[in-house]
Amino acid sequence: MPSRPKKLPREFFNRATTLVAQELLGKLLIHTIEGEQRIGRVVEVEAYLGPGDLAAHTARGLTPRTRAMFGPPGHAYVYLVYGMHTCMNVVTEPAGTGTAVLLRAIEPVKNLSDKTRGPGLLCRALGVTLQDYGRDLCSDDFHFAVDPAAEPFNIVERPRVGVDYAGEEWAAKPLRFYIEGNKYVSRK
C-alpha cells in the first residue's frame, strides 16, 4: 500500500445502516494482534435494521446477548452461530437503535489466509473472538480505514443469506451488498 490508510471516524457509523453497509464495501478492516496487522478489504455485508427487522437479533428487544447492538455506533457485536462459528457485526446509528452490519466476506490484503469467504471464516482469519464483543472499532488496534489503493466497483444488492425464519417480507429484502465480480464474495 503506497500510503497509510485513513481510519474511519465514529461519525461514519452513526448513519443509516444500509448506507453504512454499502460504504463499508472496499474499506480495509485492520486488526492488530500481538503486533501483527491482519488486514482485509470488506467485499460483502448484510444490513440488519433493528427491532422491527424480524431477521435481526434485536427483533426480540434488548437482551444480554444484544446489549452491544443497542450500544453506541462503531462497536463490535460478536456472537456464536451454531455454537461454534464466530460472527461480527458493526453497530450503526445512534445508541438504542439496535442496528448493525454483518461482515460476510473480506478479501485478504495482509497476513490473512484465503479462507475469508463467510462470516465465520472471516472472523477466524482476522482473529476475532467472543472477547471482541463490544470492542471499539475506532481504536488503534481494531478499526476500518479508507484504502488508498481502492479501485472503483459496482455494488450488487441481494436478499440476505439464511434468514427465511424472518418471513417472506424480511427474507426477500435486498439488504445484502457485495462487490460485483469479487472472487471472495461468499455467495454469488
From TrEMBL:
Coiled-coil portions: none
GO BP term, example: base-excision repair
Domain of life where this protein originates: Bacteria
CDD domains assigned: AAG
Family annotation (InterPro entries): Formyl_transferase-like_C_sf (IPR011034), MPG (IPR003180), MPG_sf (IPR036995)
Enzyme Commission code(s) on record: 3.2.2.-
Entry-linked Pfam families: Pur_DNA_glyco
GO MF entry, a single one: DNA binding
Keywords, sorted A to Z: DNA damage, DNA repair, Hydrolase
Enzyme class: hydrolase
Family the UniProt entry places it in: Belongs to the DNA glycosylase MPG family.
The protein's name: Putative 3-methyladenine DNA glycosylase
Biological source species: Eoetvoesiella caeni
